[in-house]
Design a protein that fits this description.
This protein has 19 helices and 3 strands. The protein has helices spanning 6-12, 17-25, 28-31, 48-62, 67-75, 81-112, 116-120, 129-142, 149-154, 157-175, 183-200, 204-211, 219-228, 232-246, 252-269, 277-290, 301-315, 317-322, 324-347; strands spanning 4-5, 37-38, 44-46. A hairpin with a 5-residue loop joins strand 2 (37-38) and strand 3 (44-46).
């Protein structure tokens, strides 16, 4: 077969001229024992064996390896390529999950107008970007979707009228000069949460995530302000936020969530791995309770559970008191436990 020029390699292999020369300068070709040739015009050409090696190099580059790492793969005959590749596969799988979440958040930003910047005002000052993405994901999941059959069934004409009537009562309180924290307003916020419980469950966490959709700048806030008057949505958000942060009674779901988190922290402190049966039993409790949240479909259940737990961890004053490192460690531990749980039920065909 005729030797190929760099121009032909660019179109067939997908490595640019500059990358090829950089690979040469970084001695990657030397590590693969490639004896590069030139044509009569003193330009590099590649035979069949070279092209096979270029495909291999392209693969490792696409897997995220640097030129130095690729060189080391082939320079050291004792290098465990399988183990190293498995490590890189794990890294890419985490990246895939991250970018899937990022894509979902981007769609939510387009659809409902909720952005990390919008939410920052309602969150701890030390919340991380990754944690914020988790929370935005949950908000996007809790907002009614016109293509969601469960949402369409729940938000029927009577239900929507009842919800709007409750919002109207909250707005009347606002027009009468009542603060968002007043007992009169909080009474109607409780009614609003009750109205939505059939869709969100009785969870305060889910209600708070849903209410963040009222925050100034979202699509929902524009609709509410157009209907009830400028500033109504922000007032409702403040009332719901106060309701969330000052309720003394915990709902059944939130008690389960708090108790489960406490138990997981205890198990982690005793060096139980996230995949251990005792930890997985606690995750199973959460999974069973998440079925009450009608807005979460099966495909989103893993991410929604992760987001809900992250939300709970971030806002937990006891965990925060220990420090940000504790928040990150507990969040990471819970995510690993969730990954194991969903891997198992997926393997069982559940």
């Amino acid at each position: 077969m005729k030797d190929k020029t760099i121009k032909e390699i660019e179109s067939t292999v997908g490595l640019s001229r500059s990358v090829i020369y950089k690979l040469k300068d970084d001695k990657v070709f030397d590590a693969l024992n490639m004896k590069l040739k030139t044509n009569e015009r003193a330009r590099l050409v590649f035979d069949d064996n070279d092209i096979n090696n270029l495909w291999l190099i392209k693969f490792y580059k696409d897997m995220g390896y640097t030129h130095k790492q690729i060189r080391e793969l082939f320079e050291n005959p004792n290098f465990d390529r399988t183990a190293d590749l498995n490590k890189q596969i794990s890294y890419l799988e985490n990246q895939v999950e991250y970018y899937q979440k990022l894509l979902k958040v981007a769609k939510d930003i387009v659809d409902i107008g909720v952005t990390p910047a919008t939410l920052k005002r309602g969150m701890p000052d030390d919340i991380t970007y990754s944690q914020m993405l988790d929370i935005v994901y949950l908000i996007g999941a809790s907002c009614p979707d016109e293509n969601n059959e469960v949402a369409k069934e729940f938000f029927n004409e009577d239900k929507c009228k009842s919800i709007l009537d409750t919002i109207d009562k909250i707005n009347d309180c606002r027009n009468s000069g009542n603060s968002a924290e007043s007992d009169a307003v909080q009474k109607y916020v409780s009614e609003l949460q009750s109205e939505l419980s059939g869709y969100l469950s009785d969870s305060n966490y889910a209600f708070h995530s849903f209410a963040l959709g009222f925050s100034s700048g979202t699509e929902a806030s524009k609709d509410i302000d157009n209907y009830f008057g400028e500033g109504t949505s922000e007032y409702i958000y403040q009332a719901c936020d106060y309701h969330y942060r000052n309720r003394n009674d915990s709902t059944s779901f939130d008690r389960i969530l708090a108790e489960t988190l406490t138990q997981i922290i205890i198990l982690a402190s005793k060096n139980n791995p996230p995949e251990s049966s005792v930890v997985q039993e606690e995750i199973k409790k959460l999974y069973d309770y998440f079925w009450a949240m009608k807005f979460i479909n099966e495909n989103d259940r893993k991410q929604a559970m992760s987001s809900m737990i992250i939300n709970a961890v971030v806002l937990n004053p006891e965990i925060k008191r220990v420090g940000q490192q504790a928040v990150d460690m507990i969040a990471s531990y819970c995510k690993k436990a969730l990954e194991k749980f969903f891997s198992d039920i997926s393997g069982n065909g559940s």
